[in-house]
Design brief:
The chain is α+β, with helices and mostly antiparallel strands. The chain folds into 2 domains: about 70 residues, no CATH class; about 210 residues, no CATH class. β1 and β2 form a beta hairpin.
Length: about 375
Amino acid sequence: MSKALNMKFFSLALVFFASISFATANTSSDSSDGEKDLKTEINEYIQHHLQDSYDFSLYSYTNSEHEHVYIGFPLPVILWDNGLQVFSSSKLHHGDAIAEVNGNYYALIHGKIYKGEAGVSIDQMKEALEHDHHAYHKIMNDFSITKSVVMMLLTGLLMFWLFSSLAKSYAKNKGIPTGFARIFEPIVLYIRDDIAEPNIGPNYKKYMSYLLTIFFFVWFLNLFGLTPLGVNVTGNIAVTFGLALLTFLITNLTGNKNYWGHIFWMPGVPVPMKILLAPIELLGVIIKPFALMIRLWANMSAGHIVLMSIIGLMFIFHSWLGSSLSFLLSFVLAILELLVAALQAYIFTMLSALYFGFANEEAHH
């Protein structure tokens, strides 16, 4: 009963904080602008939420001088531009100012850092880029610590601390789970007995470390994405590409002779058909991780867009009934997203195990 209540309070807090964020974002709009501008502002807020950023903005409001005030903390910007350039993202002022670093000028425009010129304002740069995308040079060697990177590092450290503590607890209590181990042990056993062993076969043990890591890593990141912190790590296609690439490399680097034989020279198939099917099978090797990447990215991004769009409807409706229904629907969807967070981690792990099974399948005689 207590766990169910905690989940409901968590979801309610999610909707509440998101509602506050929308409300503070909308206070800067002119009331005479009408619904069209309000919808545009909500759409821009959703797009901003989906993007990675160079700082953590926990809260914002408009002061008496009609200036946006952001509550949060900056992150380090690390660029390689005629040498190493390191500075705080606070110098960029959330894209409203140009940062001068060692005689270089940098501006944050549409989530990307561009190199400017002396005497050119941020508004002039934005206007020039609207007419010519190559008006200014975009910094390609960007190694900045963005909020997605921070959350991945924190998730990795959390997992290391959590499972190290669980291992020590097991050793201390002679294999008897206590505390949090009682929660995570059934999940670990499920991944081993119902995902790894049935889909991979006798060689499943060498893949267990990766499968457990990828499941909890994706699951924890998905859960962090539902908090008011505004992080959407698994909704970043670069992150899902990296995870899918790991599965791709492990699959093909550990594949046996039978696996490669079925790709390039299928047994029991006429030679002309082998020549025809080999390129198709080889293309399938690339398509599988690509589907893995798109599935996780699209599902998590769509979930955030739908949830925040429905929260935004509360500020579009001009009646208590419409706003109340939007709040209720967003509350239900927030609970559903908790299920989706675990489901997407399960699907990614299951498909990875299937690919490993294909790579280790023995020839049938």
